[in-house]
Amino acid sequence: MPQHQDMEYKPPARQANASHIPGLDGLRGVAILLVLVHMLNMLEVQHGMSAYLWSRVSQIGWTGVQLFFVLSGFLITGILLDTQRSKNYFAAFYGRRTLRIFPLYFSVLTLAFVILPWLGNVPPSIAADQDHQIWLWTYLSNWAAIFDQGSKAFPHFWSLALEEQFYLLWPLLVRSRSPEQCLRFCLAIAAIALAIRCVLAGAGVSDDLIYENSFCRMDALAFGGAAAAALRIPAWNARLLAMHDRCLLWGGMLGLFGLLVTRGFWTGTLVGISIGYTIVALTSTLVLLAIVGAEASGASGWVRIFRWRPLRAMGKYSYAIYIFHKPLHDLAGKPLLKALRLDVSQSVILSAGYMTVTIACSFFLAFCSWHLLEKRFLHMKRFFVAS
């Protein structure tokens, strides 16, 4: 999930001297907002146009996770291809990933399963996870639901587990591949993921198990990786960067097509759970390529939306926002609404207001986490520079 705002991406040709693409921060901000709208929605009624539209937008919010996967595949693959010949290829990658991900993640688990029990104040959802917390500590929580041991307190950690599995294996697979080989490899993986989803869905496997299955979600990571590899093929680079407006148009057209054939990217149907995932991943990849190309060419039109400071700020703190939003919602938001006797499930205005306040609180916690904890570990990345 959202763990890459600190990473540097160095486009190979026109932007060889640049160290950061602001538009990708904005795209990451869009992804986290989609997830938050999906996860924090409490509106139950669908009477009236405003309520109906609200519920449909909230439903589509799951696509933010798919967008995060595409971003992960793009950034990680690009970094690995750029550092292939480094003597400390593995040490640099794993060291920097550890410093970015582990401090906050394991701090939250330590608070939940060590400190709170020691204080004798354990919320019911955390108490329910006590006996099978090992899935969370080992980044395998996306497999726990198969054994009916899915987390009650941190159900959203499944995507962090999936990405950590990707980080563990991907450097081994990319190490000896040229950009051309990597591109073909990524496209093959995307096709395999689609085939696996079709087989499992046809066999009657539940939507939730498919949704969190590592093999079923490989296509988003692979499409992101394919984009990174394509940009590192000399014969393709300039052409792809120059096609940014067309990539945006194609992404928009593909997204609209996906909305129609999947009835709003609803994953409760065979179409939605099979090609629906693929369409979202391809759409995200095209938009990503459009932003990279527009930034490389110095365009100042539509790409300015993704350079908007509030959106980039959401992207910068997206990792901690993602970690905090669900516990904040369950352990503080819902009890507070109950104490105040506010029923936000029947009002679009109240639901939107609650969501806005919860997002603001999540952002504040993430801001504090970044400056008090995460940034201190990130300073140690200087010891793990690829050379």
Task: Tell me what you see in this structure.
This protein has 387 residues and is mainly α. It is 71% helix and 0% strand. It has 17 helices and no strands. Helix 1 packs parallel to helix 16, helix 9 runs antiparallel to helix 11 and helix 13 runs antiparallel to helix 14. The longest helix has 31 residues. The chain is globular and about 65 Å long. About 4% of the residues have low confidence.
What is this entry, summarized?
With 387 residues, the protein is an all-alpha fold. The protein has helices spanning 22-40, 49-60, 63-82, 89-119, 124-129, 134-137, 141-144, 158-174, 179-202, 207-212, 218-231, 234-242, 244-261, 270-297, 309-316, 318-340, 348-378.
List keywords for this structure.
387 residues; mainly alpha; globular
Helix/strand layout:
Layout: H1 22-40, H2 49-60, H3 63-82, H4 89-119, H5 124-129, H6 134-137, H7 141-144, H8 158-174, H9 179-202, H10 207-212, H11 218-231, H12 234-242, H13 244-261, H14 270-297, H15 309-316, H16 318-340, H17 348-378
